[in-house]
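Extracellular solute-binding protein family 1
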Amino acid sequence: MSIEDEYAYIVNERLSPVDFEAAGYPSLQAVYDAYISGVLDPATYKGQLYGLPLELTNWCIYLNKKVFKDVGLDPEKDYPKTWEEMVEVSEKIAVREGEILNRRGFDFRYPYHLVSTVPMVEQLGGKLISDDGKTAIVNDEAWLKFLKFMQEWGPSGKNLGSPTYTNARKLFNKDNNDMGMCLTGLYQQGRIKSDNPDFYNSGEWMVVPFPVFKNAVKDVPAAYYGHYYMVNGQKPKENQQMAWKFVAYMLSHPEEYLAKVNIVQPTVELMKSETYKSMPFSEVFTNDMAKGHIVYYGENSAQIQSHIVEAIQSVMLAGVSPEDALKTLRRKVQEVLDEG
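Tokens:
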């Protein structure tokens, strides 16, 4: 599970704090020093550290150059820098049979809105939760513009994509001329190489940064998130100690892990290594991550995300107005905050 799902186990005190000695560190501070800044913050609660990261991931845009060239676009110059350009490019790439999209220019990672679409709201000056953690849905204008964008993207608008279609990143690897772009992480490269080595070695794909609205007030890329090794606090102490020793072993070869499965274990040493720097388009992910922030996480973040899913699907698929969808979203997320 990713941290937005794991965090509930931390705050409900179901986990064992990291045993730094069993994990091979001389002190708890040495654990923090080994990782890049901020990456252990989501696993820290009331002064205790409860997890070590298996991976840290952020998402950028993968692009199939052949699809771009098929409609007369130069992928190096014409890739979308803004969400408005994403619409324009996707309209050029789209191939339809009636109302059915046989080729999409791009489509979203629909269940994962905390990572990928809440940052779009933040670009416009909105927030999911106020800084003091008490108020849901900040800046109605930003949220309404975002919901209207998603409404226009869907079947009742420009018909460029929908949560009812196959996940874009699953199609991208196949290189079947049915997907121009998708949103995913560095790990996708390992999957492309495994699924379709000819495409991987073709030079016909590239990675570009997360787009930004033309009138954005902030340059906010997709949020980054982590999957953390955690240990069951209900088990006997000796079992917990052995578990942390096992975790230490699993985290002891990050360069090999990166080279073989394209997963980033975010130690300072790895991020400075030639192994990481030589990964195709690693600089795109690094630059976006430097501008971004960790995904929203809280005791009830999974529940909040489900309400965002409902709001987006309601405007895209059910004919609900953005204004009504926003009212419902605010009420439901506020209830979650108040109950928490």
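The longest strand covers residues 52-57.
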